[in-house]
Design brief:
288 residues, alpha+beta, six-stranded antiparallel beta sheet, five-stranded antiparallel beta sheet, 18% helix
């Protein structure tokens, strides 16, 4: 089995103002998510991430519901779901829930928000299946949701997942443009730092991973290798990015932007670039 290789290069950068103060995490002491060959006979019955707006009429603040759920046809040896929440492109929190000999996982969190924001949550749903002492397989799924909250002094507060009216489309375009400018600046800094030629890679934000599946695999990869590449990618993200967040968040404000994935156009490897809460830059490399 090919493994995820890690290349660390660390520099110090100045931290900007603390923008977000909420952080949720629930996890075991050791790393759990580990890729095993895909089980061809089992899959998830359902796997969902849901963001919901809860009215805050008359108040400056409002509440956002953040729900993570998944279900398998029968109980499996280990079930674990992990979800990342980004607000205006920056990490807001992590939910990580696991169960042994379980069929279903449900986790709901509530957080306070204010002003105009774009909420994006991406989740990885994982099951580890032990058929006997010698055979271990896994199943996996990704899901996401996004929610726009428009809180303008010139109009009533509105919330939507996908814009329907002309007003909602205008707000979405304005907010996306502003956020994308910040993300592109951060990603350009990482690309420059690691001296990566952009023309050699297809760029995908981490939050867009649920758009891919076996029928629509990652750029420059095959359908046959999708599950393995995806599973090993999430194994590496969990060990290095997600657990790294848990280790550093108590000492530093949550500053991390959405990580950038780079898919080699020669189909040999992918990279993940991100900056952690301490302002340190990281590069993960996964060879196919």
């Amino acid at each position: 089995m090919l493994t995820l290789k890690l290349a660390w290069i660390v520099i110090c950068t100045s931290l900007t103002a603390i923008l977000f103060t909420y952080f949720f995490i629930e996890s075991r002491n050791e790393s759990v998510i580990k890729y095993f060959p895909a089980d061809e006979k089992q899959s998830f019955e359902s796997a969902n991430t849901t963001l919901s707006f809860q009215s805050g009429e008359g108040n400056d603040e409002y509440e956002i519901g953040w729900e993570l759920s998944s279900r398998t046809p029968q109980s499996v040896y280990l079930r674990q779901d992990v979800s990342l929440l980004y607000v205006n492109g920056r990490l807001k929190g992590v939910v990580n829930k696991w169960k042994e000999n379980a069929q279903e996982i449900n986790k709901r969190s509530t957080l306070h928000g204010e002003d105009t924001q774009k909420y994006e949550a991406i989740s990885f749903h994982h099951g580890e299946i032990h058929k006997n002492s010698d055979t271990i397989n896994s199943i996996q799924e990704t899901s996401k949701d996004r929610l726009y909250i428009i809180d303008s002094p010139h109009s009533n507060r509105i919330a939507f997942h996908d814009p329907q009216s002309a007003e909602e489309k205008t707000w979405k375009n304005k907010l996306d443009h502003s956020i994308n400018q910040q993300l592109e600046a951060q990603w350009d800094e990482l690309l420059t730092h690691y001296q990566i030629p952009e023309g050699a890679y297809e760029k995908i934000p981490l939050t867009e991973l649920p758009a891919f599946d076996e029928e629509n695999p990652f750029p420059y990869t095959s359908k046959e290798n999708y599950k393995r590449i995806s599973g090993q990618l999430w194994e590496g993200l969990y060990k290095n990015y997600i657990l790294g967040i848990k280790d550093t968040h108590s000492k530093h404000p949550i500053q991390s932007y959405i990580p950038l994935l780079l898919f080699d156009k020669n189909g040999k490897h992918l990279m993940v670039l991100y900056e952690d809460d301490a302002g340190e830059k990281h590069q993960l490399i996964q060879y196919y």
